[in-house]
Amino acid sequence: MKIVTKISIAAAIAVLVALSMSFLLKPDYTKSSVAFKIKNAGIGVDGSFTKFETSIDFNESAGAPSSIKATIETATINTGIEARDKHLKKEEFFDVEKYPKISFESTQILKTTSGSLIAEGKLTIKNVTKDIKIPFTYTAATGVFEGTVTLNRLDYGVGGKSMTMADEVQVAIKITTTK
Q1: Residue 66 DSSP symbol
Q2: Contact 135, 118 (CB under 8 A)
Q3: For 2-34, b where at least 16 C-beta lie within 10 A, e where not — what string?
Q4: Are 76 and 57 in contact (CB under 8 A)?
Q5: What is the pLDDT of residue 60?
Q6: Best CA proximity match to 117, nearest among 100, 140, 96, 98
Q7: Which pLDDT tens digit goes with each residue over 63-115?
Q8: Burial (CB count within 10 angstroms: exposed 0-12, middle 13-18, buried 19+), residue 74
Q9: How far apart are alpha carbons 52 and 74 in whole angstroms?
Q10: What's the average model confidence in pLDDT over 125-139?
């Protein structure tokens, strides 16, 4: 009986350890995006960053990531108008020569009672770091993380005061992953 009890205890511990393990999800960048919207002269301007990297350490037992890290290459900004993109790469806006990357690193991931998630972390743009919260969802069947956050561009020194350009920018993130 003692051997059976020891084996049962060892098996239970192994199951608990396996359930609490986390693993890195592999992003599929061909199905992922980082897009933004801002009003300029009352007209919505859509854009995206075409090159970015993410690292998502997923805790399967919690059904949520335990950490998220991401970097965006600022020189890959794309609004569909080459002259505007060139302007946005200059010092007044993203200053891509001096600040080639935007970064986010989570400090904690919270699961809400409704099942959605909130990534709390540090966002750095142009060497300015702010604490932010990004609400998002995760659909296990498709491996898709989606979230939207509103940022004030002036908080990060992106552009100056403007009579025509909005201060708030809506950023939509979609990351498709596989195990």
Answers
A1: E
A2: yes
A3: eeeeeeeeeeeeeeeeeeeebeebebeeeebbb
A4: no
A5: 73
A6: 140
A7: 778 899 999 999 999 999 999 999 999 999 999 999 999 999 999 999 988 88
A8: buried
A9: 9
A10: 97
